[in-house]
Amino acid sequence: FMLCDVCRSCAMLNDLGRNMLSSLLVCLFPRHGLAQLEILCKQLYETTDTAVRHQAEKALVEFTNSPDCLSKCQLLLERGSSSYSQLLAATCLSKLVSRTSNPLPLEQRIDIRNYVLNYLATRPKLAAFVTQALIQLYARITKLGWFDCQKDDYVFRNVIADVTRFLQDSVEHCIIGVTILSQLTNEINQADTTHPLTKHRKIASSFRDSSLFDIFTLSCNLLKQASGKNLNLNDESQHGLLMQLLKLSYNCLNYDFIGTSTDESSDDLCTVQIPTSWRSAFLDSSTLQLFFNLYHSIPPSLSPLVLSCLVQIASVRRSLFNNAERAKFLSHLVDGVKRILANPQCLPDPNNYHEFCRLLARLKSNYQLGELVKVENYPEVIRLIANFTVTSLQVGVPGVTLLFPTCCSPVPHLFPTCSPPVVHLFPTCSPPVPHLFLTCSPPVVHLDGLEDPLDDAGLVQQQLDQLSTIGRCEYEKTCALLVQLFDQAAQTYQELLQSTNSSAADITVQEGRLTWLVYIIGAVIGGRVSFASTDEQDAMDGELVCRVLQLMNLTDSRLAQAGNERLELAMLSFFEQFRKIYIGDQVQKSSKLYRRLSEVLGLNDETMVLSVFIGKIITNLKYWGHSYFSFSICVFLLDLLFTYSSVRKLVKLSAVQFMLNNHTSEHFSFLGVNNQSNLSDMRCRTTFYTALGRLLMVDLGEDEDQFEQFMLPLTAAFEAVAQMLSTNTFNEQEAKRTLVGLVRDLRGIAFAFNAKTSFMMLFDWIYPAYMPILQRAIELWYHDPACTTPVLKLMAELVHNRSQRLQFDVSSPNGILLFRETSKMITTYGNRILTLGEVPKDQVYGVKLKGVSVCFAMLKAVLSGNYVNFGVFRLYGDDALDNALQTFIKLLLSIPHSDLLDYPKLSQSFYSLLEVLTQDHMNFIASLEPHVVMYILSSISEGLTALDTMVCTGCCSSLDHIVTYLFKQLSRSTKKRPTPMATDDRFLHIMQQHPEMIQQMLSTVLNIIIFEDCRNQWSMSRPLLGLILLNEKYFADLRNSIVNSQPPEKQQAMHLCFENLMEGIERNLLTKNRDRFTQNLSVFRREVNDSMKNSTYGVNSNDMMS
């Protein structure tokens, strides 16, 4: 596979060919060069001398970049005596075949693939890392060449045939063959950041449809053969083969079937989207039994892999079965779980334990309560789970908190619906669990070098969610235990504070215990929403609330000397849960909780409790102003304002009036200019002023004097910035900090002012007096995103016509003037940001794309605001509109297609803007140069397959507008109409020159509707009719291709589906005709899916895509 034809012709698989090639290469690459490379490899991987390793690495980098690297790599593989040199060769080859610039020719990649397979077949006992690197090389070549053809043959798709000879040879060869399939499945499943995401999804979808099920079936058959033999698992080779088979099965089941890229943090909510063509494997109970049998027959070192496969099988999508099939499948699944619990010998292994917990979690999340309780062994399984949980808690097995709550979360709904045996089961097994759960809470660690579990917000929230359910089981006992634990901890804490001999470490540890208890109390109070609560339980909640508020008074008295941020965050968590349950219109005013609060603390109603909360917020903002904690406080303050009744009560409080009249750095330090903090640390100010804005609006009405009084601190800040910018020499950092803080404050106020009256006050205040300052800031600091992004976001908020707040008088020019300012800012920023040149990939979003995204969102907001008549700009020769649109095109063309989809905020703002442009400014789109039009159409084509539903829907809408425009222009050209504009002719000419673009989008939309989990079918249906009418011949060919790819007995049914799709459809795009087509499409999709579900195999969707 060398660079010259002579060498390539010698790259045969026989020994003579290899010897000839080696001889040729030795002439090109002397032995002393080979020896030197092997020495460098040894130094790189073995030496402990950093300088030597650095020199070796530098030399090897030069080697990988050399022009003759390819030939030298083969010589290393043929003649190298060191495993490290073989590893280097395999790694270099992987880089060569992966490069996007100057890729290797197809013939060369085919030769490399064949050579690697032959090399592995003739050397089955290479070092493990060398074998792995070569298999990785094969997988990479296969993936990147998946759509490459040679003489109408997809040369890289015969993966099963490639490994057949390995599977028919020795155990070592079998391991290599199975590992090849496993690594290939994993490689194709993972997105490559160096290649577009859309290309990855096309390859992954094609592999799924053409090869994955065959690979999974092969792995199951090999596992059945292995389980039927008396394998000697003490033998390293046989043990390794079984492990690789299990990994292969898991990789098949863990495949990203529909491109959702599931997040491990949301493990319990995961559904495996098994294709319909796999139904036969899961309807056959032997597949499920195979893995349960393997679990009980293999060593504990391998059984975690079996459980991982069972986790995926338990997560298969519900729609794969009908009701009867699902009940049968669930019964087999629960029987297997029961068998594991009845024989728990392997569960003490941590890996087995963890995977078994995941299995139970998936079992509960994927099946409804009504289905679970109907399983014959459900009561027995629940009893076994409860006993196992108690045992695990007593011995302190880590991870047990994931187990029991998952299975008992249906408890609130279980009592009134189930038969008596199940109802009476829970009181006997559940009470010990909450008790043990509370007493075995995570240890509070404050020792040097050890991690505090309370710092892991995800773990804390996960456990609180579970406690909110199981804590309400036998709530009397849970509450008594909490009171006991809290009183003990609080008493110890007070004693430590009063003692002169107590250390700071002891106090911190005790504060950690109280932190955990405050979190738990908030969780169990929040859990009340899932249960039918009684007055007695409200009184119990009152006991807990009193203790937390008393602790709050104690800790507040110490804030001047010392404070514990974790404990303060726990207080906020408690306040939030209390607000959800006991503050609002739905709360009974006679609740026994408020009676208890009145008796102990003198808090008679929710207004007095709100006063306590606001006082706490002000106190914490005073002492915790410059931290993440202040941001959390502001978010909580916003949540308090969620209901109308709460806002009306809050605004009457003296503490709230104090905030409205004194929002200055003198009273709230985080509102000042702190030269030690980053500009990004001011985020909390926007949230803070959003809350203040909502409070101000309650009684503001048309009182301009009150508004001016409120804005005095911000007026002073604007005047200060204006004064600094008016001089030639000023403190740039101080000016930036003042301006950034100011615009963040204003954005919060603008967001809160949703009413026309209040927003017009703000608009008149800022325009025209202070708008030049914002424009000047963009001109000066366009290269500093920490400064420009807040300014751009403020402008985007000001032009957003939320709740129709931007309603100018008929005699007012302010709408046009506001657009001029918007156009000026977009043009200024856009032209300057493009002068930055090449930006490193890891910085491009923060430095450039984030600001561009905000500009797109700003332009979209102003174009769709309905307060500007854009026709007047061209009529009166005003270039503001043209400048903004041309700047948009310049910015768009500077962004690679891959970046448009890689960054979610950028893609959402771009596609929503494109939707507005194609709807209201299609003449502008039609006037663009051909390469720009093709860029936009390509971006729409790629966006149709995006994972973000908002992006996909926007693309459908944009495509619909374009197709409708084209159809109308073509219809007019066939009728006696006035001569069309030159732009119309040019746009039609572009489309006629590139019909493949529209045809590709037609096949993409049809592919998604038929084969994918189409989440926006209505949106997809709107452009589809226009695409069909514009490409009737292509659609007919596409239809015939799909019909012919079906099994012979299904072709007539599929043909009938397509006939019904176009039944009653006229050749126009009138609304009535579109609606009829949308209805037909719904029936079409349902009938096609039913037909494919009953088929043993489906259509290869990528025949349409390729």
TrEMBL record:
One of its GO terms (cellular component) is nuclear pore. Pfam families: IBN_N, TPR_XPO7. GO terms for biological process: protein export from nucleus. One of its GO terms (molecular function) is small GTPase binding. Keywords: Cytoplasm, Nucleus, Protein transport, Transport. It comes from the Eukaryota. It is found in: Cytoplasm; Nucleus. PROSITE patterns: IMPORTIN_B_NT. Coiled coil: none annotated. Its main location: cytoplasm. Residues 56-122 form the Importin N-terminal domain. InterPro entries: ARM-like, ARM-type_fold, Importin-beta_N, TPR_XPO7/RBP17, XPO4/7-like. Gene3D superfamilies: Leucine-rich Repeat Variant. Belongs to the exportin family. PANTHER family: EXPORTIN 4,7-RELATED, EXPORTIN-7 ISOFORM X1. This is Exportin 7. The gene is XPO7.
